[in-house]
Design goal:
The structure is a homodimer. The first copy, chain A, is of the alpha/beta class. Helices cover 33% and strands 22% of the residues of chain A. Chains A and B meet through helix 1, helix 3, strand 5, helix 5 and strand 6 of A and helix 1, helix 3, strand 5, helix 5 and strand 6 of B.
């Protein structure tokens, strides 16, 4: 349209995979090289290690190092909110304000900015809905593109050398919060994200667990076998590693040992 | 151990992502360069296009071209078997025989063989359980390693620029066969693999669909919106593309428009 500035801002949401820099895709590597400014939202304790890996990824894969790095603290989340959804929602609104001002103030027209997302932006990550929210408000304008990445769920399966499903079975991906309601019916394979507590003592007996922490990283730990027998070991390892490193990133698959009836 | 041959055979199961060669990870590219022999199981109609992409991937990413290429026809599946699980199981046994003879006869000790898997070997692919079955028989010996890849589910989400879950929700990954039983309870997001028919007319009204075919490829088609309104369009596109190309690879996300109650 006449009078319209031609050079718009472009945002790339780049999945950088789960831990191992070799999980980056060719598409992600090519995307990194287009970026003028990386926005890093600092999440506190994990900061040191994870931001180091992010910087290493950029140093290793970007040929032309003429990029900027803008680091901002994550908005505080109101953990006292009794409702998880409104809690996350109000935190996302704060992140939306932050991202909008980053895009408005830290990028020139025609530049390319990027958010680097652990794992895959499609799984339990708020970046895409936050960008949609900013566009819906209409106060800043930009294009954006999404680059998928290897999620921790896939790293878990690959490192345990298993498929996530047996023949014809469904897989459910859920959260620690939801799992508190019990193992869902009609599902044999349950991948659990975001479980700070691993309060699994009341699950049925006949379940196998495939657990992994720091997947793809130097500190990777893998445990698999009968849930009931292994839970104390896993709890011990989690506690020790968390004390040692100050943070833990882990995920697990629970599998009914005796499959549900054939659908 | 004394007397044991030191150089064992090594198999790599390499996820090559969904369609777009740029979905390959650095890990997969590095793995390709270790391979002495690629085993390609020919699946009939898709053969021409998909094997061309596989060969292009090898040509593009392998620096030293001293590798062999062994192409074998896929064992015939007994579609008349009324039970899906025993049908797939007996077909996997046939594939097991085939893979065992490939590993036994087409590889020398110390060599590295590879199976290239579309998407991610962890999702609705038989290669890993087939290799486990061969090792359990004990007639041939080998080591193996798994390299995860971007699945069609992730390509779908990235191309539609959506997360697969909304805040705190579960995601179920299922098959067309299972979906025939209806939209599962307590799940808002349903990713469907392996659905030849897309017989979705009897699903509830309030569902959005995000559909994609030939994801990441030249022929990519994306459709999203109200399922009820779009189903005829999608059926028409599927039929036309299938007639044109002789095969279709598609996947979709179904999402309840009104989320379930907060868990």
């Amino acid at each position: 349209m006449a009078g319209e500035p031609r050079a718009t801002k472009k945002i790339l949401v780049i999945g950088i995979g789960a831990g191992n820099p070799d999980y980056l895709t060719i598409q992600a590597v090519n995307a990194l090289s287009q970026v003028d400014v990386f926005f890093i939202v600092d999440k506190g304790r994990e900061k040191g290690d994870l931001n180091r890996i992010r910087r290493e990824i950029c140093q290793r894969f970007i040929v032309n190092p003429a990029y900027r790095w803008v680091e901002v603290p994550d908005p505080v989340r109101d953990a006292a909110d009794p409702c998880y959804r409104t809690d996350v929602d109000s935190w996302r609104a704060k992140r939306g304000d932050l991202y909008r001002s980053l895009i408005a103030d830290e990028m020139k027209k025609g530049e390319c900015g990027a958010f680097l997302v652990w794992g895959d932006p499609a799984l339990y990550d708020g970046t895409l809905p936050i960008l949609e929210r900013i566009l819906a408000e209409g106060r800043v304008r930009f294009e954006y593109e999404v680059i998928p990445g290897i999620s921790s769920m896939q790293a878990l399966a690959a490192r345990h050398r298993i498929a996530l499903n047996r023949i014809g079975e469904a897989i459910q991906i859920t959260t620690g919060r939801r799992l508190a309601g019990g193992f869902p019916d009609h599902v044999d394979n349950l991948v659990v994200f975001l479980d700070a507590d691993m309060d699994l003592g009341s699950l049925p007996d006949d379940i196998d667990i495939y657990w992994g922490a720091y997947l793809g990283m130097e500190d990777e730990v893998l445990v698999s076998g009968k849930l009931k027998a292994l839970l104390p070991d896993i709890e011990r390892i989690r506690k020790a590693k968390k004390a040692e490193k100050g943070w833990i990133m882990d995920t697990y698959l629970l599998r009914r040992n005796t499959p549900d009836k054939n659908p």
